[in-house]
Amino acid sequence: MSTTPEPGLSNFIADKIRADNASDKFGGRVLTRFPPEPNGYLHIGHVKSICLNFGLARDFAAGCNLRFDDTNPAAEEQEYVDAIESDVHWLGFEWAGKYFASDYFEQIYLWAERLDELGKAYVDELSPEQIAEYRGDYHRPGKASPFRDRSVDENLRLLRAMRAGEFDEGKAVLRAKIDVNHPNMNLRDPVLYRVKKAHHHRTGDAWCIYPMYDYAHPLSDAVEGITHSICTLEFADHRPFYDWCIQTVDTPYKPEQTEFARLKLTYTVLSKRKLLQLVNDGLVDGWDDPRMPTIRGMRRRGVPPSALRELASRVGVSKADSWIDVSILEACIRDDLDATSARAMAVIDGLPITLTNYAPFTATLQNHPKKPELGSRTVTLTETIYVEREDFEEAPAKGFFRLFPGNWVRLRGAGFVRVDGVTKDLGGVITGLTATWHAPIEGNEGPGGGKVKGTIHWVPSDSPVVEVRLYDRLFTAEHPDSDDWKSHLNPKGKVVVTTARVEPSLANAAPGTRYQFERVGFFALDEVDTKPGKPVWNRVITLKDSWAKEKK
Ligand code: ATP
Ligand code: MG
After folding, report:
1. In a shared domain, residues 65 and 190
2. Active-site residue flag, 262
3. Which of 268, 364, 458, 550 has the greatest number of C-beta atoms within 10 Å?
4. Which residues line ligand 1 (CB under 6 A)?
5. Per residue in 411-427, pLDDT tens?
6. Model confidence at 1, in pLDDT bands (50, 70, 90)?
7. Is 3 part of a structural domain of the chain?
8. Are 364 and 378 in contact (CB under 8 A)?
9. What digits encode the pLDDT tens for the residues 51-109?
10. Which ligand number lies closest to the CA of residue 38?
């Protein structure tokens, strides 16, 4: 768990709950809900909503329901239900109750009959196009449907006929009777039910009419006894209809809707529709591709759940939309992993060095510079070792303190090395180095006297060869939201190296384990593609923000 306080007690919604408790509005009860539609995988935007709803429940010693808003049978699937449950659990939250809007279809329908009886709803047989035409828009007044003034009995008969399957799709809808010319378009006699002859993933073929989201949602909240129904800002204009449903139906519980700003993150997309396109077009390797902003993807990449909760905390809850720079998420991940993950050595692009005066030596290395409780491990020097190719320069620029001919450099935990010779192939590419080794010396001086400025990491020759996947931001554009958003995919978002080496102590690491590969980045052992003897390491995040300087 992160050490910073999580969201909840210090935001305007918490203030509202405190005020409601003080005025006894809900009889001292607090119950929130997280209401995903099971039509895709959860993404980092949902994390904000989950942390807020479950966080408030925790802070007020109350409950938060997980409710699947499954009112649109066409797009919904059990696969998504299962994934959402597992993702919420992985984030560290437990629901008070798990429900489905479809559990309430009968109740919601009976309430529609009640609206009929109250003269507050009518069956409209205009075509969908006519309904849109009659509704008008912000500049054009609406006009009443010729079916608006049907009798209660006729409306009831027709609603029951709709339910019995006697109308084809598009031939009839049930509408609320509010005001055809209301300045808020959402109140111009909104549709409550439409005919949809589709198989539902839970109710099967029991229904051929389905309630609209805006009608089903407040009533589902009411059935569960939700007190604070929290949603994103674009629903603010829908709130009057939310209240209309609760007041007109006169549900026993009277939940209230409050809106907050949705999370908008740079260098990625957060719409299920777009994420689905990336998957379907094969532009990413599925919903759990480590570049995806889905919980699945981030989890597979090696992002710890505490880092995502920390992002929700740092971003806070506000009433105004704003962009959050993805570097804030990256910093949360970096800070978390820096504090928690053990260190190890790995060489991504290896250059062999033969130690001409090799003598057996075993380095003892602390697993974490600030956490002695994480212990230490040993790495045994071999006659040939591998270092990072970029740590050697044959003709170094001024200020380069790493390997170049004649220069002593510290080998992490294992003394010093000085390059004496360079081997090249016919094309002039460096294929190896020869060097003199020196055992560790107390104090700051190197073997040649004077200070040794550079320290490099290395691995011995018996290090396993592994695949590493160097992940980076999904898009190169800060706001990939234009028509050609897909053209901004980062071609370097995934770079695969099959010839990296990790120190032998990592040979039997458990999938999912995270390490800081010193000087290289934070990595996690992939839980899907790692096979016995064939490890795959995912780069979770670089050590430093390499995008900060590029942006200038
Ligand atoms: P999308 O637009 O990606 O399809 P959605 O809003 O339709 O997302 P739902 O499954 O309906 O997805 O969302 C469940 C809950 O998560 C809702 O309460 C919604 O307001 C919230 N939510 C979705 N996206 C975000 C976001 N970017 N920031 C904060 N909350 C979000
Ligand atoms: Mg939605």
Report:
1. yes
2. yes
3. 458
4. 35-37, 45-46, 48-49, 231-232, 262-263, 270-272
5. 999 999 999 999 999 99
6. very low
7. no
8. yes
9. 999 999 999 999 999 999 999 998 888 999 999 999 999 999 999 999 999 999 999 99
10. 1
